[in-house]
Structure formats: structure tokens, C-alpha cells
Amino acid sequence: MKETGAGLGTQEEKLANIELSIHECEEAVEEGKNEIIELLNSRANTKGEAQRFDTLMEQIDIRKASIGQKLLSLKSEEIELAKAKEAAEKEYQRVTDQIAALKKQNQELEAAVQGLSQEIAKQNSQLELGQRTLNREESRLESLKNITERYEGYGNSIRRVMEQKGKNPGIHGVVADLIEVQKDYEIAVETALGGSIQNIVTDNEDTAKRMIDFLKKNKYGRATFLPLSSVSAKGDFTQKEALKEKGAIGIASSLVGTASSYKGLVQYLLGRVLVVDNIDNAIAIARKYHYSFRMVTKEGELLSPGGSMTGGAFKNNSNLLGRRREIEELEESIGLLRKDIEGMQKALEQNRSLRNEKRDAIASLLEELRRESVAQNT
User: Fold this and answer.
1) How far apart, in whole angstroms, are the C-alpha atoms of residue 266 and residue 272?
2) For 293-318, what is each residue's pLDDT tens digit?
3) Which of 23, 48, 80, 205 has the most C-beta neighbours closer than 10 Å?
4) What is the DSSP string of 307-343?
5) Residue 182: CB partners within 8 Å, gap ≥ 6?
6) Tens-digit pLDDT profile for residues 243-294
7) Is 27 strand, coil or helix?
8) Do the beta carbons of residue 184 and residue 321 sit within 8 Å?
9) 224 phi, psi to nearest 5 deg
């Protein structure tokens, strides 16, 4: 009985152990089920996440493809923009260089205009001076011609006779009108002529007689006439050696120019008068030749045969011998002045035209500069 009871206890213990094991297994199974459920749930969640990620990846791939295309487009656009930038930079540099060139050209044109303006002002001053000189010379010429035509400086009787010259072709003129003398010898020759310078030259005695009757009838005074038909040379200068003396210039008649028809008249009036450079040499010559002939100096001193001397301050406001020379000189001077003035006017007009052209060029250039500046800013 004791063995049966002992065996039962063992069996019960084994059963208890088995039940315990079963219970533990059941718990383990239950835990396993729970884990399986959790795994299944986790698997479902993971699968959902995987699907979501797959969807997201598809979207990302689509976005990536879109971005890739856009990137390619941007790269192409970048290349085009780089080309455009390079072209713009070149154009900008060209415009900048053009602006610099235009500014330099403008400065050169402005300087040229300023220079031309200064030259024009100078030319205007010269032209005004030339015009004043021309007006003065023309007035002087007109005055001198009027004086010559009216025979101012001559006696009243001479003027009255010369007024008849148009009606009496036999009147040739006064001595002063018929001869020409170099300026240096005008005083000497006029001194040598003395009162003869106002003598009236006629073709013959009949004309002279008619004019004398004219003066008497009208009580105009007296005049001396030199008829060419009767006036003849008084002979040559006899003291030829005197021409070689110090200061001797020549016989007065040789210093006078005239028409061939008046050569005898000039010889008659001046053929025996020696012209000397100054009074000291004239006195020396007079002493050596015993005061035997007339001499005049360039300054107007007169040494007569016999020893008398005439001199002093030479006042000859009428300048009868120099009138024609002065008229000719004035006419020549006026001609040159007119030519100079025409040249100045032509040069002035050319400079004005050139200045206007440059001003127009500046205006055109400034407009181009404005356009280029706009282009540069753009």
C-alpha cells in the first residue's frame, strides 16, 4: 500500500509538472499568437508603408524626371544666356569705346570751333582795320583828285586858265602836271623850278595870247605861259667836271621824267641846274667853280650864280610835284587794299562756313552720343 501511495504521488507530481508545462506552453502559445498578430499587424503596416514609399518613389521619380528635363532646359538656356551675355558684353564694350571716341571727337571739334572763332574774331578785326584804312585812303585819294582838278595851291589866274582847258586843246597844262620826279628829288626839282612850276604850257604863242587876253578881259590876274613852239633849251650844263665832285647827283633835267614832246621844255627849265646831296658839298662845289652855276640840294637849299643862298625850313604844303605821284601811289595802295580785303573776306567766309559745318557735326555727334549712351545704359 505504501508503494502504491508512493507511486501515485509521483504520478501526481509528474501530472502537476505536465500541467504546469502545458500551462506554460499554452501561455507560450498565447504569447506566440500575440506576437504573430503583432507581426501580422506590423507586416500589414510595413506593407502599407512600403506601398506608400513605392508611391512616393514613383512621385519622386516623376519629379526627378521633370527636374532633369528642366535642368536640361536650364542648361540650354544658360548656354544661350552665356552667349547673349558675351554678345552683350562685346556690344557694351563697343558702345563704350564708341562713346569714348565720340567724346574725343567732340572735344576735337569743340577745340576746332573755338580756334575758328578766335581766328574769325582776329580776321574781323583785321577786316575792320583794312576797311578803315581803305576808307581813309579812298577819302585821301578823292580829296587829292578834287584838289588836283581844282588846281588848289595854284594862283587864281592859273586856275582860271586851266578851267578853259576843255575849250582850248592848245593848253597842255601846268609844268608840274607834265613831269614826273622821284620822291627823293621832288623838293630839289621844285626848288629849281621855283615859280616856273606853275607856268602854263601851250602849243604855240597864239594860244598863249588868247589866254592872256582872257585873263585881262576878266581881270583874273597874270600868268606865265610857255609856248612849245618858241621855248628852246638855253644850252647844256658847261661845267661837266662838277658832275664828278663829291655829293653831285646830276643835272636836274636828267632826274625828271616826261613825254618826248616836253624834253626841250624840261631842258629849258632845268638843264643848267646841278642837284647836290647836301649844302656842305654844294658850298664846296660853288667855291671851287667860283659860284658860276645854280645848284639845289635834296633838302631845298638853293645856291645861285654869284654866291647868293636861299634856304631854311621848307614849307610846301601844296606839294605840286608830288600830287600825281601820290595819286598813283594811293591808287596802287587802294588796289592792293581792296585785293587784301577781298582775300580777307573770302578767308573769313570760308572759316565761318567751316565753323558752321563743325557746329553741325557737333550737333549730329551729340545726338549720336545720346543714342549710344542710351544703348550703354540699356
Assistant:
1) 10
2) 999 999 999 999 998 999 887 665 55
3) 205
4) S-EE-SS---TT-TTHHHHHHHHHHHHHHHHHHHHHH
5) 255
6) 999 999 999 999 999 999 999 999 999 999 999 999 999 999 999 999 999 9
7) helix
8) no
9) -105, 130
Q: Residue 146 corresponds to which amino acid? A: N
Cell of 222: 597874270
Dist. CA 63–CA 79, nearest whole Å: 24
Cα–Cα distances (Å) from 133 to 11, 20, 130, 292, 344, in that order, read 169, 156, 5, 50, 14
Q: What is the amino acid identity at position 87?
A: A
Distances in whole angstroms, Cα of residue 354 to Cα of each of 270, 357, 359, 360? 62, 5, 9, 10
Q: Which residue has the cell 503596416?
A: 45
pLDDT beyond 90 at 76: no
Name beta bridge partners: 191: none
Cα–Cα distance, 372 to 96 (Å, whole number): 8
